[in-house]
Amino acid sequence: MKKVLFLDRDGTLVLEPEDYQVDSLDKVEFYPQMFFYLSKIVRELDYQLVMVTNQDGLGTDSYPEDTFWRAHNMILRALENEGITFEDVLIDRTFKDENALTRKPNTGMVLHYMNDEQYDITNSYVVGDRITDMQLAANMGAKGIWLANDPDLGADEINEEQEQLADTIALTTTSWAELYHYLKSQGRMANVQRTTKETNVTVHLNIDGRGQYQNETGIGFFDHMLDQLAKHSGCDLIVKVEGDLHIDQHHTIEDAALALGQAFRKALGDKRGIERYGSCLLPMDEALAQVAIDFSGRPWLVWQDEFKREMVGQFPMEMAQHFFKSFSDQAQCNLNVRVSGDNDHHQIEAVFKAFARAIKMAVLRTGTELPSTKGVL
Q: Do 259 and 174 fall within a single domain?
């Protein structure tokens, strides 16, 4: 599903003049740092851009069209020159007292985005300087980022509106830098719940995290390996499993791997801009692990180990290969894993660390193109 930034124009992309009409070229002054940070959002994050703007009385004697379009088209050209393009530009021409269904904060201009299942409105944002932009977000069921320069409101009124729209306004700022860093921190996330008669698994994944973790599977060594995966990949990871450990560890490890693979597949979305491939050659004392990964959309596992023990802690060593096979099946990725050494603890830990490092390389976003000549992954 596509996430959208619904961007106001005046007061958000360009500064709003005293008469509220950007009707000449000499009134066009772009919002500070907007170009730099909005272009980073376009390159690095997975949002469609839609402009939604009220232009009071456009086309009337008080606001002639010819002057508006000259300035407006120059704004669009300047943005396009920086790689910033819009899926749609929606303009309401009515006056406030008409209370038209198309005028923000009413939703008439954006209804087709709300009704089209290909758009993820819940995780989309309305970005604007007016409180009506935040009310539009609330009416849409989206979130709001408020560049709180609304000329009709004082500081006390802004605080009051923040309280009233607390469930909608995700960020109040006047800085495009802060806006960018907020969106960047939201990252590529997925939540997966997998419940069977054998296990109940919950996975929370943030690919663009800080390597934080909280893993509780009932198998101490397995928790330790999942902690290594989070720490060395940079992903935030929570894995909770209630499994039938009174039988054995098989279902707990297998179902955790399936849910984790599904979480990566969901969080990566259409995979535009990612490196796709990652590899790592990692030593741990006498052990040496080699892991290569390709988020290709096709599952495949090649495995080679030199394990000698039946168990490391409460972790059955036969489940190591099965964990990565299950992950590959659900993440729809190729995995090539080879490890050698004398100490099985060192070998399997080296594998998980190399796996994490390979993932960190593969999920890195360096552009916006799909890394495939097929046109789909």
A: no
